[in-house]
Amino acid sequence: MVVLRLDSLALSRSRFALSPFAETLAAVVQLARPYSEPWAAAWRERHRPAFLARLAGDGYARGLVELIAATKYLPDHLTLPPGGGMETTLESELAEVARVPDETAVAGLRTAQRHAWAGQRLDWLTGHGHGARAAALFREVWDTHLAADWPTRRAALQRDVTHRAGLLAAHGWPRALQRMNRTSEWVGADAIRFSDRPGPDRVVGPDGMLFVPVTAQRSSWLCEAPGRPFAMVYAARGTGEEADAAPTGDGEALARLLGVGRAQILRNLAVPATTSELALLLAQSVGTVGGHLAILRDTGLVGRTRVGRRVLYHRTELGDRLAAGPG
């Protein structure tokens, strides 16, 4: 069991961050494995043939991807903590990966191979510049398969952070960290159980740690690097796909009653969000969303709460009942 033991100052200095690289790593695993999370099925069907065709012509890339998809221990040079907080850029992360020394990358790959499913080999691990080669592959995956979807995915990740920040302000870190992954939970007063697999405990120092959401619903791993805070990657509450789903059944009735725009907003407020987050998620202007929210508030379907500098909108009990439909 891996436990993160927190210094007395760690919680007060812990924070959330975004990582486009972590989102890309999770996407690589989704595209490589022979099964799909239900929410990602349409995206995977569109992108997997081109992804596999790309790997077919590159033994190094194919070997790296197959190892990533088959191991319980991700290679160290692919799990560096993000350094830019909520504004972390893919370019900064790729540059860090590219700078990782070969000996560090090879050691991490060999450890990953020892923790992989049977049959994983490293005969593809030849040459040098392993960090740069991984960075080039991830850049290509991003450009081809993720860049177009990033604004919607980013909005979903920001909504998760906003939701957890609200829980943090109202109830403290134990509630904010609840159900971040299938195995994590608060242990005692000063520790987080990260995994039920065997492994050494980690001590989180006074600089705290980072919590990094990704849209893949089964993804969770720990990022660490010398001199950097630990980062816990976890599955966000939203997938970035909600706004793409056309209303059916009771959703159509709700749209007839409220109008399509207000019905979309009410459905998406199953998770509290700001006006700008809803605008990005629904590809509407902030003014349009604000007008819809004003009407929904006037009718008692939506309320709002201030968390720091953000104003979060949420469904009221009446809004929940209406969104749920008959029965």
UniProtKB/TrEMBL annotation:
It comes from the Bacteria. Transmembrane segments: none annotated. SUPFAM superfamilies: Winged helix' DNA-binding domain. InterPro entries: ArsR-like_HTH (IPR011991), Metal_resp_trans_reg (IPR051011), WH-like_DNA-bd_sf (IPR036388), WH_DNA-bd_sf (IPR036390). This is Putative transcriptional regulator. It comes from Kitasatospora setae (strain ATCC 33774 / DSM 43861 / JCM 3304 / KCC A-0304 / NBRC 14216 / KM-6054).
